Amino acid sequence: MTVQKAIEVLKAGELAVLPTETVYGLFADATNEAAVQRLYAVKGRPIDKALNMNVADYNEILKYSIHQPPYLEKLVKAFLPGPLTLILEASSEVPEWIHVGKTTVGFRMPSIQATQEVIKALGVLVGPSANLTGAPSPRFYNELTTDILDKAAVSIQDDSVYGLDTTILDLSADKPQILRQGAITAKELLEAVPELSEIV
């Protein structure tokens, strides 16, 4: 029931608090500019700080990116859904209000089943951490503040989270680069995808 409710409110342009395997996120329909702007306002997030796209499958990554490395599918199969954010060059399909003047866009595929179902129903969501900008990211439901919960039309609780940030892997340049070391290590990436040997 709560999953269905989350789908309905997001389709209506409202915000939803959903769990990911790392922290709780504040989600909006990525294709709805007004909803995304509302999310920025609720978080107090600088408007020039781009958002990642939360997608349900590999095909969505292909749709919203260009110049993908040949090992991309192998990487996705090995680690997604999971705590890995991939940065790729953005395709013309990416709304301007998502990547805010940048030529790249980040992709996220959370592994919590309820959140996956919601993303699949909507197509693509944005879902930065469910906190006011500068405050700690909420790893557990009881760490969510009223500032956020009062502005979300629905929230789903699932505390089976790591509490570790995603690893951010930039695939948009000549050489793959880890921008943030998180739940997945460089060693794990290399073992699964040896083509990443130039990783820095």
TrEMBL record:
Source species: Lactococcus ileimucosae
Top EC class, one word: transferase
- Which lineage is the organism of this entry classified under, starting from the top rank? Bacteria, Bacillati, Bacillota, Bacilli, Lactobacillales
EC number(s): the record gives 2.7.7.87
Source taxon at top rank: Bacteria
One term of GO molecular function: L-threonylcarbamoyladenylate synthase
Q: What PANTHER family does the annotation carry?
A: SUA5, THREONYLCARBAMOYL-AMP SYNTHASE
By sequence similarity, the record places it as follows:
Belongs to the SUA5 family.
Alphabetic keyword roster: ATP-binding, Cytoplasm, Nucleotide-binding, Nucleotidyltransferase, Transferase, tRNA processing
- From the Swiss-Prot or TrEMBL record, state where the protein is found: Cytoplasm
InterPro entries documented for this protein: DHBP_synth_RibB-like_a/b_dom, Sua5-like_dom, TC-AMP_synthase_SUA5
Concerning PROSITE patterns, the annotation shows: YRDC (PS51163)
Q: Which residue range or ranges hold the YrdC-like domain?
A: 1-184
Record field: catalytic activity: L-threonine + hydrogencarbonate + ATP = L-threonylcarbamoyladenylate + diphosphate + H2O
Listed Pfam families: Sua5_yciO_yrdC
According to UniProt, the name of this protein is L-threonylcarbamoyladenylate synthase
